[in-house]
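Q: Hi! First time asking for a complex rather than a single chain. Here are the components, and I think there are four in total. Is that enough to go on?
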Amino acid sequence: MEEKKSQYCSCLYHSANALSRIMTKISDEEFSKIGLGSSHAFLVMTVNAKQGIQPKEISVQMQLTASTVTRLIEKMEYRGYLKREACGRTTKVYSTEAGLALQIKLKEIWKSLYERYASLLGKQEADQLTADIYNAALKLE
Amino acid sequence: MEEKKSQYCSCLYHSANALSRIMTKISDEEFSKIGLGSSHAFLVMTVNAKQGIQPKEISVQMQLTASTVTRLIEKMEYRGYLKREACGRTTKVYSTEAGLALQIKLKEIWKSLYERYASLLGKQEADQLTADIYNAALKLE
DNA sequence: AAATAATATTTGTATGTACAAACAAATTTA
DNA sequence: TAAATTTGTTTGTACATACAAATATTATTT
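A: Yes, that's all I need. Here is the structure of the assembled complex.
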């Protein structure tokens, strides 16, 4: 039985993208338990952790562009988990009651996401890989 | 000067996605020299390497879904780099003259993409990271 | 041979993300 | 203080990708 590696397995562009798609799928699966996509879930967690946070800071923490953050906030506002307050040229983002009420579940799911991939990769290997990837990302940008 | 890591740097979902976005950006920058996005560029390379290849096999090699591959092929067909031939329930994909003519540039750009990230990460570290990520992706899916 | 299941491909639709441009407000410069 | 620049946010638009459903063809079973 011939085990064939992808022609592109030695290209970081491909490996990184493949892993990203798989992780997004796994993560979305987990967060779908509360009806949110991963990015939306982490956005709500981020705001829960710091009421009045500005989109700019969210975009730094989540490593997404400002426009993407605006779009994510809009949706969570529409769904009643977040609200915005214009404040000069900046905007402050707050959780609603409903948003805060999600926090326990969010943390639980985040933990079970970790358990899930750590059990497949090994805890130590998973942590090491995560750190390596993070450091590479820092060097590349 | 306070150097602060992202709150999420220890989460593989985030690290993987961040790296993926950075690599896609770098790669797209390189391939934009010939006016193609990365996925389209690799699709053309894949077909150049195997005339008559089927979308199914392309989707395996590129680790993309079949529908995504269809969309990529459509665009390259429209631009005159590929052509399709219906063949029973399958489809055969071929390069046109124009598509073949790109091959040298494609390989050059792919090489310079590698040089670019390898020079930032170190050749050995880059290769190791790529392999680690690829193996993790295999274990997770 | 007819019916059923499996497979390959495409289509309709939705989503996350980004870029560039538009705006608005604050800061700096002249 | 007026003008110019910078900064934070949002909007318009585009794109890659995926999922689910629809087709079409081939393979298998009865």
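A: The first strand of chain A starts at residue 82 and ends at 87. Let me know if you'd like any chain examined more closely.
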